[in-house]
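Q: Hi! New to this. If I give you a protein sequence and the SMILES for fe (ii) ion, can you show me the bound structure?
A: Yes, paste them in.
Q: Okay, here:
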Amino acid sequence: MGHIGYLDLHSHILPGIDDGSKNWDMTEGMLQAAYRQGVRRIVATPHNYQENRKQDNENIRELCRRADELAQMIDSSFHVLPGNEVLYRSGIPAEIEAGHILTLGGSAYLLVEFFPNESYGRISQGLRELVGYGYYPVVAHMERVNALFGNEERISEIVEMGCYLQVNCQSLMGGFFDRQAASLRKLIQNRKIHFLGSDCHNLSGRPPIMEDCVKRLYQKLPKECVETLIYGNQEQFLKKKCI
Ligand SMILES: [Fe+2]
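A: Thanks. Here is the predicted structure of the protein with fe (ii) ion bound:
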């Protein structure tokens, strides 16, 4: 493990706000598990749907401050950053301006979720709009987006447009015969995947794995490839710069 630890860009660790952590005890347990997995920066990304107005930014920031205090009690180098996982709809920039959506850690990066069967036309148009407003959209668990996964031409197109792609650690855990994991490794090798996320929701079904996944990647991919994914991109993200 490198000296800066891992960045987990996608998590549902804040209590009682979405289908993730149920209470502060669970949040604390998830933070401890993430810490044991080598994570030192975790972005809290509660689901954000248009109709979900209980999620004003101040509420999330306050929950993050408390989660960050818990993280600090585990280790002073461990931090929780505020964010959202925004389900795509038109008009996101205006909602950010109005204080209903948080970008990731106060940067221009924005975690955007698409329905699995969203059309490529709508995906590329939507991402183009966000890029046009100066945001760096990160497509959440791209392996679930049927119009993108398996289509390297489209992936290249949106990456060239200024977008980034996030993959869930769990999706990379498959062995030799797991075609999804093999395709994702190929994308990582071609520098088309920019961030890993645990997308953790709890401690059992969807736990905060990270190091298990990174170890697996080191076994299968050239070292520099993994280092760029894990450390290079994280460094740029933390400087709030584009990759
Ligand atoms: Fe998620």
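A: The two ends are 22 Å apart (CA to CA). Let me know if you'd like me to explain how to read the tokens.
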